[in-house]
Sequence to fold (471 residues):
Amino acid sequence: MTAIEHPARDADDGPPLPPARVPFPVVDEVARHCLQEEEPETVHIEVHLPGRLDPARLTTAFTEALHRHPRVLMREAARPWYRRRYEWELTPDPDVPVVSFPPPDRDALQHARTRALVTAPSLSASPPIRLEVVEGAGPPVGSAATDSVGLRTTGTGTSTPSRAPHPHTHLGTVLFLTVNHTALDGPACLRILATAAELYGGKDNSPAAPPLRTPAPAPATGPVDTPSTWTPPARVAHGTPEPSPGNGLLVTEFAVPRRPQGSPYTVNDQLMVATALMIAHWNREHGARSRRPLRITMPVDDRPRGTDMPIGNGTRLVEVPFTPAELDQNRLGELLRRTADRTRALKSLPRPQLGHGAAVLTAPVVPVAWRAALTRGLRRAAAPWTSTTLLSNIGRIPYALDFGGEAGRAHAVWFSAPARMPRGLTVTTASTAGRLHVALRWSRTLLSHGDGAHLRDLFEHYLHRTQEDPG
Fold:
């Protein structure tokens, strides 16, 4: 086993200095203004390992990883009502135990997923994340569990055959990292987990170089029939809402979709098209034949993935529009190329994380409590203009997440993003070892688990269609 080395700490040769404080960035402040107990803003990260971990050693490694990325060791500072900013107070050590090991039982996986959706780590205790370690958890990959946050793994056709389970899944471990999204996002916390893996097992978990791609040709003309951003977008039609508030979750797995040789679009564009066609199909089935465009929010993350990666909420959001006339599954080639043009253009545009309006709204001119009331009011007023859904494609996991020894290397990683109304549905994807890991998360005031399962099947169908040579 590899020993974990702790960096030397300076001796305490005087009275303790007050904790350093960092003003909330724009994204953090807007999220803080709009917190809701009914639908917590959590990000859930689920990492499946083939073997087992030593509890004490993992706790030491993860705690040391927090010290290697000290920006995560923070809590919301107390403030008088008239203060003009929220502030993060940086702490030298965690305020609370960060790693827990719930007792193993047959429903441990389901219970851990449920906790990740309904209970956010506190902002008043450092750090605003928690790690749960579930051993020998749940059904093996390849089974067909149908609980409200269960795992169902399918193939890639319009049918849903299960593939053979991973040979070590029944002996394995699942790491659940639950993140308060007011403070941090998924990619930042994955970086922390990669550092913990390297400290635990002594294996190199440096980020792999991104795959080389042939540069796509510049579009000959601008996007066709791009809807105005002033047009309220279509909403996801209501299914069968459930009486309990909060979010539901379904995770599934496919092969990473293929692309025809020389195609100008990326896997991200295929995922975008599959998401748009899934929602259009769902809305038709439920009688919501809206003439409004679909708009899909797409996070873009330009941060480096090394140990110097900035920790926090670092993605910027862009919106990809689709007119109803464009969403024709019989003209997929044209739709994929148009989507590629749009996403490429949107990624290249410099833009604040939440747009210019949010930067003005969070300017520290008046007390933050007044801005909070204004922000909540504007959010309610702007609800009709909120995008239809969010597709967060993490892409290929850049780290091996190799804990070494018996624990081994991650063979599946899922993320899920919050799904509060008025969107009510998010799709989050990541790929590991040639497999695409997909999480559908929804508001229970909009959809039920049965609705989520049907949306999953529609997503699979249309993702498979994007692999056909569109001509």
Remarks:
- The longest strand covers residues 247-255.
- Residues 292 and 428 are 24 Å apart (CA to CA).
